[in-house]
Give the backbone structure.
Amino acid sequence: MYDLIGDIHGHADELVQLLEALEYRDFGGVYRHPERKVIFLGDFIDRGPQIPRVLGIVRPMVEAGHALAVMGNHELNALAFHTEDRDAPGERLRRRTAKNEKQHRATLEQLSSEVLRSHLNWFRTLPMWLELDGLRAVHACWDERAIGAVSAGLQSHGGITDDFLHSACRKGQPLFAPVEILLKGKEGKLPEGASFVDKDGHVRTEIRTRWYLPPEGHTYRSYALQSDPIDCDHPLDASVAAAASPYPTDGKPIFLGHYWLSAVQPSVLTRNVACLDFSVAKKGFLCAYRWNGERILSDENFVRANRT
């Protein structure tokens, strides 16, 4: 059975507290449980104060077989930030803009070049989704078409190589859109003149959608994830509805991170979809779901770490 853990973002104290609450113990520098494994849902780096320690916990668990992990958008962003754009000498695939440097600054400040290089090489080995017996895991969005396209791209490029990154991290390239869907979710453009301010203080004109629900009958307000509070009750544009990929209510449970939810107590999104990102890097909490094989998820199976 599995214990799924959401976005950590360099908060090692909370990670240790959560692992211990789940009855994992440190044996020779590697946390493990006699009967269970962790599934980490990505976003180990950036923002937080203890990035080396987080990677020093997560990576050995995965390499020793006591955990699985999927890539988050921050791991992909880091790879692009440090990969030269061969079509623009001196530039990186993720441009060194003030915004991008600010997002990645904590990682750059806390990891030496040599250590960072080692972890970047490890990031290349992480899958972008997991299809397991009884459950699915992905950082932001489960979409069969996107998975098919990325799977074909991984095969043709021989994994997450520089060629793959050039196709996945530049707008207009074949893998850009499907990788964005899996690691950042689906967005819907708001009507002209509508906007909101996100948790980082950025003005947004697109919502992150509840892609797993049928869009019929929804407005922009009701179809936006909780993390995107938008005061707009216009019906959804046809393009937003067309991009939805409603998840069958009898499908395998899906576990996600990414969405910066806020709550006093975590709860499932639907009977078989759960998000485990409750904004530990924004004064929220680190969260896990203890999965025991059930097809209908229960709020009672969430486990959270308290702030330290």
Summary: Residues 2-186+245-304 form a domain with the Purple Acid Phosphatase; chain A, domain 2 fold (CATH 3.60.21.10).
